[in-house]
Amino acid sequence: MGEMIFTATGDTFITRRLPGKDKSFLELSGLLKKADVRFTNLEITVHDGEGIPGAVSGGTWAKTKPAALQDIKDYGFNLVGWVNNHTLDYSIEGLKATERNLDTYEFVHGGAGLNLASASEPRYLETEAGRVAMIAATSTFHESWVAGDQRPDMIGRPGINPLRYQTIYHVTQEQLAHLKKIASSTKINAVRDMSIKEGFKVERKDGLFEFGGHLFKEEKQEGKTTSPIPNDMNRILQAIREAKRQANYVLVSIHAHEMLADDKEQPAQFLETFARACIDEGAHAVVGHGPHLVRGIEVYKNRPIFYSLGNFIFQNDTVTHLPADFYQAYDLSHTNTVADALDVRSKDNSIGLGVNPKIWESVLPIWKMENGELTELNLHPLELGFGKKRFERGWPVLSDNTAVLERLSELSAPYGTEIHIEEGVGKVLLKKGVYV
User: Fold this and answer.
1) What fold, for 4-150+227-321+352-429?
2) CB within 8 A of 391, min separation 6: which ones?
3) pTM for the whole thing?
4) How far apart are CA 307 and CA 139, in angstroms?
5) N or C: the chain end with fewer CB closer than 10 Å?
6) What are the residue ranges spanned by the domains of the chain?
7) pLDDT digits (tens, 9 = 90+) for 186-220
8) Shortest CA distance to 395 belongs to which of 358, 436, 433, 362?
């Protein structure tokens, strides 16, 4: 295989049209277009109101006009994942409309579809440098959003390609005894126990104790562990096995908000397990996004894992319409407006994502691969307008602020990744021959 150049971003949450193609746009789009493969995660539904607001959302009911896809195309993106915690904000019709519009604008896209086979299959991008496969999944979603399998006698269910995970809480013998006593006296497991008696659920045989839907295990050391659900992990690995025989390179996209303990900058344990398993199976890169800030970079077996690339476009505070559910959550009425609701949610811009500077800076990685091996990885800092009014911020510009690179270097160090900052660009030091 010859050399191929990749770039990828985190979340593109676009609700406004690009005002113009100024110098900063041309500089950024020019850098993006140097790559053969240009990926972004589309974290918004795209339609003209065909979708019905779902009973649950990813936090904000995310919707933009189809014409916004032209702006994403103008930046240069040619590969789009659109599976995340907003994919079904506007129910199945919103999902179908988003898929139609992505097709209309001729993006190669994946991660959601009319059934599980469609949502989980590899999608292929043809470039002059070679063929690239993308498999996209999310671990952050409402359980009703999972795509369903087709059967000979029943159609599948539209939805997302899920990566579910299991959480086990480790407690001491004494603590477990207390939990069992509380469960007995409060009957917190009564519905589950009755479902087992009536045959709607199967009794656990793994020795774990269930307490109100949470799983506990007796251990000497207290803590929490997470691990991918085997069925989902195996389905994604099967897609990688298919893709690596049909393309030069395989890219895996994973949208994941889940964190380690209470540290949003650290990925949950199951994400590390998942990402390394994907590389072991033959993926050439894993691109993470979801928490709206950057997480560490791991170079595993000479292939990059980006645990989160933060935001690329982030305009969640300029949606034009929201359903009644959003207003009711903040005790507002039908006479209130979107601006009212956003003011209440942010306590007049004193809390939330808008006041966290880490949300409004990220990086754009450009990396080269040859014969399946990483040969170069550079990181370009981006800024999205922290401190501006909410209707002004959210557009990315290349920046000479190296603070995000310094923080990313610290987050990457535990993975053995060294980032040297040279002339405002982060350069990952590759250790050839170390990975097997």
Assistant:
1) Purple Acid Phosphatase; chain A, domain 2 (3.60.21)
2) 16, 317, 318
3) 0.95
4) 13
5) C
6) 4-150+227-321+352-429, 173-218
7) 999 999 999 999 999 999 888 899 999 999 999 99
8) 362
